[in-house]
Amino acid sequence: MKKTYFFLYYRYEKIAFLLIFIFLSSISRANELNIYSARSEALIKPLLDIFEKENGIKVNLITGDSDILIKRLESESQNSPADIFLTIDAGALYRVKKLNLFQEIDFSFINKKNKISKDYYDKEKKWISLSKRIRTVVYAKNLNPENLLKFEDLANVEWKGKICVRSSNNIYNQSLVASLISNHGEEKAEVIIKNIVKNFAKKPSGNDRAQITSVANNECNIAIINHYYYAQMLNSKEPQEREAAKKVNITFLNQKDRGAHVNISGLGIVKYSKNKKNAYKLISFLLREDSQVWYANINYEYPVIDGLNINSLLGSWGKISLDEGSINNLGNLNYKAVRLMDRVGWQ
Amino acid sequence: MVPFIYIGSSFFFLFNDNWHHIIDNVLYNYFINSMILSLGVAVCTFFIGTITAWFTSFYNFPFKKLISYFLLMPLTMPAYIIAITYVGISDQVYFLPDIRNLPGAIIMISLVLYPYVYILARGAFLEQSKELYENAQILGASPAKIFFKISMPMAKPAIVLGVTLSAMEALADYGTVEFLGIPTFTTGIFRTWFGMNDAVTATQMSGLLLTIVFIFVFIEQQSRSKVRYSESIKTQSKFSYKTPSNINKIIIIFICLLPLIFGFFIPLFQLLYWSIFTSTQMWDNGFIEIISNTIFLSFFVALLILLISILVTYIKRFKPKSLITKFMKIITLGYAIPGSVIAIAVVVPFAAFDNYINQLLSTKFNLSVGLVFSGTFFTLIFGYCIRFLTVSSRTISAGLDSVSIATDEAAKSLGVSSENILRKIHFPLLKTSIFTGFLLVFVDIVKELPLTYVLRPFNFNTLSVRAFELASHEKISDASTAAVMIVFLAMIPVSLIIKNILGKRNKL
Amino acid sequence: MNKKLIISDLSLSYKNNNDKNQILSNIYFELDESEIGCILGPSGCGKTSLLRAIVGFENIISGTIEVNGVCLSSSSKVIPTQARKMGMVFQDYALFPNMDVRSNVAFGLEHLAKKERDEKVNYLLDIVNLKKYENKYPYELSGGEQQRVALIRALAPSPEILLLDEPFSNIDTDIKENLISNIRKLLKEFSMTSIVVTHDQNEAFNFADKISIMNKGKIEQTGSAYEIYHKPLNKFVADFVGLGTFLQITKNDSGIFTSPFGVLDDLKFDKSFFKFKNLEMFLRPDDVIHNDKSDIKAVVIEKQFRGAEFLYKLLYNDQYHLLCYAPSHHDHKIGELIGIELDIEHYVIFEK
Q: Is the dihedral of CA B321, B322, B323, B329 positive or negative?
C-alpha cells in the first residue's frame, strides 16, 4: 500500500520539479527562428528541416488555427517570441496587419531573382505570398460544362439541387464570397449567393474531398472545391479516393473575365521579432525555386514564382487566369462575407 | 478562476452590432441545435450506458467478461475521428443512412461518450445490496419493476453524473459538429470570432453558453443532494448473477455488442484499413517522439490533476462552506466550454500578466525575461486542469460520498488527524475511484485536441494534434495512423480501468 | 389438518470450483397452518440456505418443497420467487433506501387499487405505531423502527409463509424479549405461518412453536422447546442447546452401569443402550443440586452471578466437570468445597 501512495507523500516535491521543468523549457536560445504557423506541420516542417540544416539556425515551430495564433500574438505583444507568422489565408494576414503586428518587409534583403508579381504581396509590404490555392468546381463527367463558365453561373436555376459545398464556417468559402463582394459589391453578391444556396443539393457538411466523393456518388453534380484536393485525390494512395476523383472533371471558372478565385498562403515578419536576420533568410529560402516547386509536388499548390517547372498534373491543366486583383481585399471583406452567408442561410 | 473572470468580464464590453446580426439570423438555430444535440446525447448515452451496465451487472451470459471489458473501449475514440470514419464508410456503403445531420451527430458523439454512463452506472449497480433485489422479488416485483423502482433510483446519482458529463462534452464539441456541418453554439463562437473577427462577441457567446451549463449543473446538483443513501446501504452479501434463457442470452449479447461494434470495431477497422496505405511512411523518429510526448504529457498532467482534485474534494468535505468550494463549482463547468475558448481565456490573461512582469522588471532592473507563463507547459497544464478537473474530482467525490461521515467522526473521536483519516481510512476505500479518475483524465488528455493545439509550446507535438492537422488537410489516410495510435494508447488506461473496477468484482 | 409447508428429502449443493459442496442434505421439515417454526443452528450450518431455497433463490438438487400441497421446488421444477407468495424479513431489513416508509410498505401491494392499498398500508402502520414516520426515509429511523417497517412490508401482501432471517440479531438485548413476544403475538393475530432462522436459543424458545436443530446441513432434531432441551437426541443437540457436561458411564462385567456418582438406575434410561459398554451421560446444571449437607463434595473452579442464582462450575474428584445452579444467597468462594447431589428424573445417555 505504501508504494501505491508514494507520490502522494511527495506531492510537493513533484510539483516543484514540474515547475522547474516548465521554467527551463521557456528559456530561449540564440541563433534561432520562432514561427507561428497556421500551415500544418506536415506541410511546412520538411522545408524548415532543410532550412535548419542549410543555415544552422534552430527553427522552433508552433502550428495552430490562424485566428488563435493571431490572438496569441496580440496578447503577447512586444514579448512574443514569434518572428514569423505564416498562414494559409490572405484574410488572416490582413488581420495581423490591421493589428499592427507585422513590420515592413525590406525587399532588398530578398534574392532579386525570385520576383513575385505585385498582387502577391501586400501593398505596404507587410506580408508576401508563398503559394496559390485556387477555389473552383468539379463536375460529374456526364455533365455538359458549357453553361458552367463563371462562378456566377452557379446561381442559375439550371443547377437547382445539383451543387455540393462545405459549410460556410470554412475560410475557403468565406474568402470566395469575399472575392465576389470585391468584384460585384455587397448587394449584387448577396443575390448571387442567395441563388447559389437555393441550388444546394443538401445541407453543407464534410470537407472538400467529401464534396468530390458526393459528385462521384451522384448525390450532386457540381462541387465547389480547392483544386489541390482534387489533385491529391487523383494521386491518392487509397484506391477508393482515386476511383472517386476519376469520376469527375475539374474546370476553372471565370477564365474569360476576372479569372478563377485564388487565395494564398503567405507570411509576414512579426513587428517585435528578435531574429530579423534569420527571418529574411527564411523568406529567401521559401521563395527559392526548389522550395517553391516543393509546394506543388507535396500539396499540389501553385507556386507564386512564375515560370517554374512544376509537376505534370498541374502542368497539364495549363495556364490558368486568376482573380489576382481581389487578393488584397479578401481580408477586410471577410467579415461582410460571413454576415452575408448568415443572412442567406448558408450554414 | 482567471479564465472565468476573463469570460465573465466580456459582458462589460458593449454588445456590438454583431449581436443584432447573430440574434436576427443564427442565434435561434445555434441554440436549438446545441440543445437538441446535448439533450439527444444525454438521452442516448443514458439508454446505451444504463442498459449495457444493467445486463453486465446482473445477468450471466457467454463472453460476459469480455463484453463488459470491451464496452469501455469506445472511450478511446475521439468523437471527430469516429465521425470521419463513418462518413468515409457511408461514402462507400450506399445503404447506410447519411450521418451528416443532427441525429447523426448525436449518434456519433453518444457512441464514444456512453462509456462514462456505463462505467458509473455499473459501479453503482454492483455496489447495491443483493438483499434489496431479493426482497423486491419476494414481494412479487417483476425485473422491470425492480429496475425502475430500485436499481435506477439508487444508481441515480452516478447515472446523472455520467449523463451530465456526456451532455456537457457534447455541448463543448467542435470537431464533430463542424465536420458534420451542424451549426451549434460552439461553431457559432468560432464563426463569430474567426469569420467576423469579433473576439468580444465570441467571448460573450461563450459566457452565455457557460450560463446555460451553469443552470444544468445546478439542476443536477439539486437532484443529487436530496437523499443520502450511503448510510443505509450495507453490502455484505455477494452478488449472484441471473442466468437467462438461451434466447434471452442471445438478445442480451446482441444488445451489448451493438454499441461496441458501432462505437469501436467498425471505426477502428476503417482506420486500420486507411492506415495500411500510409503507415510505413508515418513511422519515423518524429512519430516516435510524438508518441512519447503524448504518453509523458498525459501521465504527468493526469497525476497533477488527480492530486489537485483530491485536495479540492477534501476541502469540500471538511470545509463545505469555504471559498474554494464555491470556486470549484465554477471551475468544474470547464468541461462544457469549448477547449479553444478555454485556451484563449488562459492565453490572454497570462500573456497580460507576463507583459506586466516584463514591464516591471525592465523599468526597475532593466531586465527582460520574455514570456514566463504563456507559451510554456505552465499554461498548457493550467488549461488541462480547468478542463478536466471535473472528471477526476467528480469521480473521487462520488466515491467519497459513499464513505459515511460517521466514519470520519469515529476516526476523529479516536484522535486521528485529518491527514491520517485520509491516508488510513479514505485512500484504501477510495483507491478505485482515485485510480479511475486518474485513468479517465489520462484517456481524455491523450484524445484532447483544442487545448493542446493552442497551448503547447514550440516544437511540441502530440498524436491528437498530428491526427487533427492531417485530417483537417483532408489527408485522412495519413491521419488514421495517428488516430489508430491514439486508440491503442488510450486502450492502455482503459484496460487498466477495466481491470481495476470490473475485474475485481467479476472474481466472485 | 393439512400441512401448510412440507419439505421432504431436500438437498442442496453449490458447485465451488471442482468440489461439490453439500450445503443441505435430506432435509425434512413441516409446518401446520399458522404455526411458527424455528431453524436453530450455529452460523454456517445451512439454515439461511434453507430459507433461500424456500423463497426460490437456490435451486435444489433433490427433494421437494410444497406449500398448500403445491410443489414449489423440485429438482426439475422451480416456481419463480415472484410467484411464490412468500414474505421475508432480512437480517439487515433491506429497506429500499430510495423510498420513504409508506412506499416501502406499499411496494408489494401494487396489484391493489390505490384506495385499498392506502387503507392496508395505514392499517399496518397503525399496528406497529409507525404512522407518524410514514414519510421518513429508512436512514432516518432507528434499528427497531426499521425492523417494524420490514416486518409490515413483508406482511402487507399477505404471504403464505413469512420467513425471518435472524430478525433480532441487530436489536438491543434489553428490548429484545419484549419485542419477540410482541411480534409473536402479531404473527398469531395474523395467523401467519412463519419460519424464523436464528442461532440464539433464547429467541427460538420464546418465539417458536416448534424448533428444528440444524447442523452441517442436516436437521438433527425437531420438537418443542421442552423436548429439545430435555430429550436431546444426540450429543450435538444436547451440547448446542443449553448448558451441560458429559460424565463417563462404564458397564462392569456383571452388566451394571456406574457413573462417578454411583450405580445408575436401569429404569431411567432406554434399554437400547444396554448393549453398549461405554456410554456418556449428559447433565444439565439443574440436574445438579447444591446441598451443604451432602456428602458428595466438589471444588468451585468458576462462578457466574446471574441475579437470582449462581452458576457454579465445579470439579468433582479432580477430573469430572459439573455445572450447578444455586440460589444466589449461597455465595461460595472459588476453591471452596461445596456439597452437591444429583436429582435426575430421566438420564440423557449417549453412546460414546
A: negative
Chain A touches chain B, with at least 3 Cβ pairs below 8 Å, answer yes
The DSSP letter of residue A201 is: S
CA distance A259 to A253: 7
Residues ≥6 apart with Cβ < 8 Å to A215: A138, A139, A140, A164, A221, A222, A223, A247, A248
* C33: DSSP letter: T
Residues B161 and B326: beta-carbon distance below 8 Å: no
Residues B130-178 have pLDDT tens digits of 778 788 888 888 878 888 888 888 888 788 888 888 888 888 888 888 8
Q: Which of A7, A101, A232, A342 to mutate to test the interface with B (most CBs of B within 10 A)?
A: A342
Nearest CA to A22 among B15, B300, C78? Answer: B300
Three cell numbers written together for A43: 506541410
Element (H, E) at A223: strand A222-226
CA atoms within 13 A on the CB side of A190: 11
C157·B232 Cβ contact <8 A: no
**Using CA atoms, how far apart are residues A250 and A211, in angstroms rounded to an integer?**
13
CB B373 within 8 A of CB B354: yes
Dist CA A76 CA B347 (whole Å): 9
Minimal Cβ distance to B233: which of C90, C97, C99: C97
Chains A, B: CB pairs < 8 Å: 198
Cβ distance B344 to A229 less than 8 Å, yes or no, reads: no
DSSP state of A7: H
Q: What nine digits make up the cell of A211?
A: 464534396
Query: Is the ipTM above a cut-off of 0.85?
Result: no
**What phi, psi does C261 have (nearest 5°)?**
-100, 5
Question: CA angle at residue B334 from B305 to B155, to 5 degrees?
Answer: 80
Instruction: Tell me the whole-structure pTM to 2 decimals.
Output: 0.76
pLDDT tens digits, one per residue of A159-171: 888 999 998 888 8
DSSP-based three-state secondary structure for B494: helix
By C-alpha distance, which of A129, A84, A75 is closest to A102? A84
- CB-CB neighbors (< 8 A) of B227 in chain C: 97-98, 137
- Cβ atoms C153, C180 nearer than 8 A: no
Whether the Cβ atoms of residue A98 and residue A70 lie closer than 8 Å to each other = no
Which residues between 214 and 273 in chain B have a beta carbon less than 8 angstroms from any beta carbon of chain C? 227-229, 231-234, 236, 240
